[in-house]
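Section 5: illustrative case.
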């Protein structure tokens, strides 16, 4: 279902992200990757994502997590499903199993033993927009929404939205099924959301 208000907001956030200069973007990326490092613990299972387009890159965080012995996982989407599985982050040079998506948004999918989201300790969630109450605006695919909804009554992975400060607003439109995240990390700092 297309929501015109959300579509307009997505355009606005993407434009703001695109308008960052290379220097601003690099400095912000470095800061965010540094602010995420306290989430790394040896043996902890952490879900990350493969950045698409101008999404925040997590290279510094990924390298630090690998060095410190955390186990990283990437989203894996089976054809014709909304809920994501997570497969181990590939070792250098691992071949992707297949690509998912059309046109420019090719998300590499890697093989490996799949786990569900509640098998993770932490899930870093890419955002298009984020509000100060923990609600996110995503790419409109619904994958994270379906995945987080499935976790609602189970052991919870901590969900941390990651993105740039220009993607944060006071409130976003929300649907009844939307679930707030536990935190948001941008170059402006770490926000932690308390939910009732």
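Designed sequence:
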């Amino acid at each position: 279902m297309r929501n015109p208000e959300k579509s307009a907001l997505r355009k606005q956030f993407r434009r703001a992200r695109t308008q960052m200069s290379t220097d601003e973007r690099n400095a912000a990326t470095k800061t965010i990757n540094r602010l995420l490092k306290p989430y790394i613990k040896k043996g902890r299972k952490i879900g990350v994502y493969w950045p698409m387009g101008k999404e925040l890159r997590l290279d510094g965080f990924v390298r630090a997590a690998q060095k410190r012995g955390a186990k990283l996982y990437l989203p894996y989407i089976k054809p014709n499903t909304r809920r994501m599985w997570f497969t181990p982050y590939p070792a250098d040079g691992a071949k992707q199993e297949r690509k998912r998506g059309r046109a420019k948004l090719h998300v590499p999918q890697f093989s490996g033993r799949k786990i569900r989201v509640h098998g993770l300790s932490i899930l870093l969630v890419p955002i298009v927009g984020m509000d100060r109450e923990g609600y996110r605006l995503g790419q409109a695919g619904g994958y994270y929404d379906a995945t987080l909804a499935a976790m609602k009554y189970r052991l919870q992975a901590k969900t941390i939205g990651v993105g740039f400060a220009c993607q944060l607003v006071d409130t976003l439109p929300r649907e009844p099924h939307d679930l707030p995240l536990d935190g948001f990390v941008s170059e402006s700092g770490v926000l932690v959301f308390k939910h009732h």
